[in-house]
Amino acid sequence: MADLEVERENGILWLTLNRPEQMGALTVEMRNTILSELEVARSDDDVRGIVIGGTGKGFCTGADLSQSRGGETSSPGRMREMMRTGGALMLRKIWEIEKPVIASVNGTAAGLGAHLALFCDLVIAAEGVRFIEVFVRRGIAMDALGGFLLPRVMPLHKAKELAFFGDSFTAEEALALGVINKVVPGEELEAATKEWADRLAKAPTFAIGCTKRLLNRGTEVDLEAIHDDEALIQCMVMGSEDAQEGMLSFRERRKPEFKGR
Q1: Which of 159, 175, 201 is the C-terminal boundary of a domain?
Q2: According to a count of CB atoms within 10 Å of the terminal CB, is the N or C end of the chain lower?
């Protein structure tokens, strides 16, 4: 079995981290394959959505430390460049790809693995799953773009609490904070994920991708900039096949059949 299972089914790209004995720890090869698959999916009209999941008791516990030499010091410039081409690049691809991405979190998500889940657009987790900002436990500062991510998905003081102490928080606590979307019994996780994936596969993918861009930028720019962005993007979307189908189906009083373009 491959460490990363890749499957395309009914318009959805499924990426499954398949290292249950290592709690889903990411190897360099897995990360590079995810990057490659995301790059292909970005321009593939047949891909209407993406699901990232795991197997066993771990979703992803971060990078595979057995591949790291650890303890090395480096110049800030070299460290910055190394991090730009590592896990952070994968997270940026997920954040920026104009396709909806679901995290199907089956087990513990720690460090880079927690951020891998939370960088996705929608997060469904099994009951009892734990998220851990594990960095402080290793005596290192938070990375994997946590300084960008956490203040956007939770209150700042809660983000500091989790980052300073490295305590775990459960899926149920994450749901109460609004950090994730849904918590289901473990045996229902696959079905719940497929339900949302199927809905996305039938949705207006281009419109959703543009909406994703607007929402992601919303915390970074002022009202005037968002107003201008919405006008520009809406001009683009209104000329799409799905927008025309949406208007036509409304007039004909029927359910739209979107093609994702």
Answers
A1: 201
A2: N
CB 25 within 8 A of CB 19: yes
Residue 72 pLDDT more than 70?
no
Residue 15 burial (10 A CB sphere; 0-12, 13-18, 19+): buried
> Which residue would you say has higher pLDDT here, 139 or 69?
139
Residue 124 corresponds to which tokens in the numbers above?
């469904």
This prediction's pTM: 0.93
- Domain residues for 228? 205-251
Rg, the chain, Cα only: 19
Residue 136 counted as domain residue: yes
Q: How far apart are CA 228 and CA 239, in angstroms?
A: 18
